[in-house]
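Today's session is about reading a structure prediction critically. Students often jump straight to the picture, but the first step is always the sequence itself: look for stretches that repeat, for charged clusters, for runs of hydrophobic residues. Only then move on to the predicted structure, which in these notes is written as discrete structure tokens rather than atom positions. Here is the chain we will use throughout the hour.
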Amino acid sequence: MSGHSKVWIDLTDIIEWRGHHTGIQRVVYQLASRYSQDPETGYFTFDPRSKKFREASFTSIEQAMAAEKERPSQKAAEYQVNKYKVIAYKVYAKSPLWLKDRVATPKNKDRLRRVYHRAANIRQRPKLAKVSAISAREVSFGAGDTVLVLGKAWDYSPDFMEAMRRKKLRADFKLVQVVYDLIPIFCPHLFGIPLIEPYTKHLFEVCASSDGLLAISQSTKRDVQKFCKEMELAEPPIAVIHLGDDFIEAPTAPPDISGVKSGNFILSVGTLEVRKNRQLIHMAYKEGLLRGIDLPQMVIIGAKGWYNEDVLYQFQFDPQLKDKVHVLHGVNDSELRWLYENCLFTTFPSIYEGWGLPVAESLAYGKFCLTTNVSSMPEIAGDLLEYSSPYDSSQYLDLLVKYLDPATLKNKEEEIAKKYQPTQWGDTFKQAKDFLETKVSGHR
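Below is the predicted structure for this chain, in token form.
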């Protein structure tokens, strides 16, 4: 950026986060950390109580990340926290529908997530240097500055975009935001009802107020264009950035999973929710039993998300699969790395994605990934992969069986090693920075 203009980056997503970053938190950290090398970068967070934007420090986040690498195992602490979590789930399950609707709002879910992550880390959280993460001083965005919102602002507070719009009217800065997907708008059956209306409203305000948008795939860009057309909004400049898939450096450590050893399992990584379509895995494994096919162990990893209860119940209590399919939560970076390095291959049967990071991560480890032929997944590696319909368990099973052949799998891995070009987070940063400097700074 030229002159004395600054880039202001929103840290609300990660300012109080403890534990390793996943998903959106990872995007925020990777891009914000690279901007920290520029003295003309400022950071801020949104205070939902005062509805003000306050200056923030990136130093405390760097300290937390450094301490996280040295922190010992927290199995005992997590067990204690999870006991109370199970009790809370049981109380929620027995509550009347009217109470569930009032409890399961995006705001309340975000509060509960924050409480849970704080509790899960409190016993062994390292003491950080006394650096105030959030200043009491309100941010003064200036004309010519650029404000970059990388995270899930729809989840902070329903007042975020209105407060940002008012600031922008007064200061005439440039506003750029990352758009991950529009799935709650175009595929509402894959998300919870409490999210659909506020997310639609949020995206309307994002498209109406932003001077530029960063979409994480061509699929997301097409969805944004479709949304603007349907809402009769002027389409802001949109650039597609590819998220980094370079994996986190960590020592390898095998998780304690009965019956699972190197080379005898398929891996599936991603949030446990209806959209990730683990029901396709269940149907394929059942179809395999009917055909007399002995499929390998399946290891599924992910935090719990929207509408996961039915398929988790089936995996847990189906007597034919309960010792064949293993569902894990809270796997650490060392265990995840071991699983990627020692699996036969991976699978990601999602119905719809903004990008599909587990597919790219699998390829970065040199592993074949069986994924689906919808939304953004074919963008990641094109003809380098094979794809199944997310709704055809027979086709999916046939492809699973195909890549259980050692020669076929070896040939594919050699092709991946030769042709796949991983995206580094430095590349993602350059794509975003170039867009801000070449497209947004002169846009009115």
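Discussion point for the tutorial: Residues 72-83, 120-131 have pLDDT under 50 and may be disordered.
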